[in-house]
Amino acid sequence: MENAFENAIFNSEKDRPLTCFFKQKDKLSALHPDISDTMINMKILRKCGGELEHTIKSRCVEPCSTEDYLNAMEDIITRTRIGKTWTKIPIESNIVSNIPREDRRPEKPVLKCHKYGSNSHLANTCTKKTKINEVQVLEELIQLGVLRKVGHSEEVEVTTPVIIAWHNDQSRRVGDLRELNTYTVPDRYPIPRIQETLTQLSKTEYITSMDALKGFHQIVLTPKAKMPFGINNAPSHYQRMMNTIFPTELSEGWLIICIDGIIICSDSWSLHLERLARVLHKLAEVNMKITLKKFNFVVEELKALGHVVSCLSLGIHKNKVAAVLLTSIPQNKKEMMSFLRFSSYYRQHLKEVAILAKSLYGICDKQTVFEMTQERIEAYEKIKKALIEAPLLLIPDCNIPFKLYTDTCGDGLGAALHQVQIIDDKPKEGQVCYISRQIKPTEARYDRSQMECLCLVWELEKLHYYLDGSVFEVITDCNAVKLLLNMKTPNSHMLRWQTAIQEYGGNMTIIHKAGNIHKDADRLSRWELANTPDNPSYVPLEAEPQIPIEGIHITDIATEIFQEVTESYKQHKNCHILTSLLDKDCKDTSLVNALDEVWKNSYSEGRFHLFDGIIYHRTKHSCVMTLCSRFLINNILHECHDRIYSGHLSWTEHLKK
């Protein structure tokens, strides 16, 4: 009976790889509940021994036979009580936690809420399939010991409406705990950063991942209550709990924990088995359960946290890319913010995303009317295309030098972190991550040299996790960045930047690269702006806004003022000589030599002109009247600034400035 059952399960799947072996357990359990966890695991291993041996030999650095592997795995199962760890009935964790409440609130929250009415938009989710599944979910949670039936005379402190949400064709019970969340003290315990966490997989040959079964429900609040999903402090409490259980393993760097997800990585087979045994043993000690459906044993690439990660590269999960393809243009602010948050999650894969998203963030402001103009639609499509075509990022190796390409433009700062790694026995330069941000209003006043220096300081701070203690090159097209470290008399903020950069002085080399070949980050400031239909800022000539002229302001200076100016020239030596030279187009060298040095130089350069008896001095950008009397200067300022028909402030206000 048992052999027939076993053959029926495995005849069609004997050639499947090692990553699928443990996934057969649920099928076996469903068809033959009497088979224990340990028995199932060993049957899978022994049944697929030939394929297993081939897989082990192709992956292992160390020689390992099938028998050695089976013995090692059997030892792990025995020592760690792995069957107990995978048991689903019931959840009886030894982990006790407490969520403090805010008792000083002026008004207590409404902790007893009715279920959603028929007029609620959430009531539409209650389909026949959902109603049937809701009963199954509740029965499963009761069986696991998460929920219990309340007696008719028992007082309940909190009641909340519940709906069933679907995710990956699986149902999840979701409660509306918003009112209860306002009654709790926020827990600010930090959650690991995704990008920094996954980079720990560098130079890893073996990866195993697992997820806790109903993770939050394994935290006991009181003898009669467990942590529900939807509490705002649940992730922080769970992360703190896991960090407390595995302090040594986390500090050694081979264990990655992000809330209820556990990843074990090793560079040798025997070490990987040993580490797996340590983790499972500690989970069994605290009576924590893991779900077998998400137990991935020794995989080459791992799908985690919306990414596909291996020991060499990091990419966006194909399901997320498919979701981007199916999205349409947002129709309101909520949909737009949802798209922007999604793209921001993958910002390390996207070049200059902050610059592209600037106009889209602008219409999400509460004071702004939502309107998708042609420019915003094209920005949205560009971000969408960048997500679909996002490149694979290299998993960085801190023992290899980095290359930091940096550049700025009038709208933002950007950088690309690269590294040269040996792939397929050939050196290849690839991207590690992209970063970008918009400039602040105060930074918009900086000149180009200051902006480039600001960009470098910001990038060093942002990429400190990678660059601290590593050798790297900074490639820039601005030579002022090279001079920043050696500046003798810097201003206040340049001095602060000098101090910040000196931390990396021993490991950092700044290289100047001409702008026309600086293409990694330089696209920010060298974007082609030809007025063509392909340009996002294209404006057809016939569609340019026509602004009606409703009035022209003219400052009228009295004729007497001009007469006084011409008369004053007779009392001034240089002006009198210039009048004679310009009026008669005289080339008398004696008159020219009689001019003062400054006046003579301007005359020889052809900067003086005579019009209606008034001498004008022409420069590159202006042409101004020449006055030689303080009294006349005050009169002209009064005419241009202090009269009721003048369009400027009074001359006294200008002098004060």
Describe this structure in words.
This protein is an alpha+beta fold. Among the domains are: 2-86, no CATH class; 121-181, no CATH class; 314-388, Alpha-Beta Plaits, CATH 3.30.70; 393-524, Ribonuclease H-like superfamily/Ribonuclease H (Nucleotidyltransferase, domain 5), CATH 3.30.420.10; 559-656, no CATH class. The protein contains 27 helices and 20 strands. It has a 5-stranded mixed beta sheet. β13 (402-408) and β14 (412-423) form a beta hairpin. The protein is elongated and about 115 Å long. InterPro entries: DNA/RNA_pol_sf (IPR043502), Retrovirus_Pol_polyprotein (IPR050951), Rev_trsase/Diguanyl_cyclase (IPR043128), RT_dom (IPR000477), RT_RNaseH (IPR041373).
CATH 4th-level superfamily of the domain at 393-524 = Ribonuclease H-like superfamily/Ribonuclease H
What share of the residues does DSSP label as strand, in percent?
A: 15-25%
Q: Look up the CATH topology of the domain at 393-524.
A: Nucleotidyltransferase, domain 5
Biggest beta sheet summary = 5 strands, mixed
Compute the number of strand runs: 20
Strand order of the largest sheet: 15-14-13-16-17
Radius of gyration over all CA atoms, rounded: 37 Å
Task: Give the N-to-C terminal Cα separation.
Answer: 100 Å
As a percent range, the share of helical residues equals 25-40%
Number of helices: 27
Briefly, what CATH class of the domain at 393-524? Alpha Beta
Mean pLDDT: 70
Assembly annotation = single chain
- What is the global morphology? elongated
CATH architecture group name of the domain at 393-524: 2-Layer Sandwich
